[in-house]
Amino acid sequence: MAQNRNEVCSANYLHKKLDIPHQYLRQLLTKLSKSGFIHSSRGRNGGFVFSKEISQIYIADIIDSVEGLESFNKCILGFTDCPFDVKCSMHDFWEKTRGSIINELKTTSLADLILRK
Fold first, then answer.
1. Model confidence, pTM
2. Of 61, 35, 50, nearest in space to 2 by CA
3. What are the backbone angles phi and psi of residue 15, rounded to the nearest 5°?
4. Counted domains in the chain
5. How confident is the model at residue 102 (pLDDT cuts 50, 70, 90)?
6. Which residues constitute the domain of residue 2?
7. Angle, vertex CA 109, rays to CA 105 and CA 112, nearest 5
8. Model pLDDT, residue 90
């Protein structure tokens, strides 16, 4: 969609092109639509188009609207609690890496991804 941002894409087209299960794709499209990233139109020539410029749509915003960014706040080793007085062996590494990843996601737009191709 981002490569042809003015073209209306049907859910069926996206399903075939991206090889994403139809039901899961519908959930994603609904969440992206409710978040204001895409607009849907019904009917014979209906489908999905971007609601705003792709240079203003950041990867972190998409992840947050679809899955949430909470997974980045979890312990990389799977511990449920992080007692700061007894940090796990990966704590400092993950804290630094997590910050770098989140910063990259917050500053990378869909337009940036197309330019990197």
1. 0.78
2. 50
3. -60, -45
4. 2
5. very high
6. 1-52
7. 110
8. 82
Nearest Cα to 2, choosing from 116, 100, 104?
116
Task: List the structure tokens of 53.
Answer: 């410029």
Rounded CA-CA distance 26/113 in Å is 23
The CATH code of the domain that includes 36 is 1.10.10
The CA–CA distances, whole Å, from 109 to 6, 25, 95 equal: 17, 21, 23
Contacts of 72 (CB under 8 A, 6+ apart): 98, 101, 102
pLDDT mean over 36-43: 89
Q: Which H or E run includes 98?
A: helix 91-107
pLDDT value at position 117?
65
Question: For residue 55, what pLDDT is reported?
Answer: 93
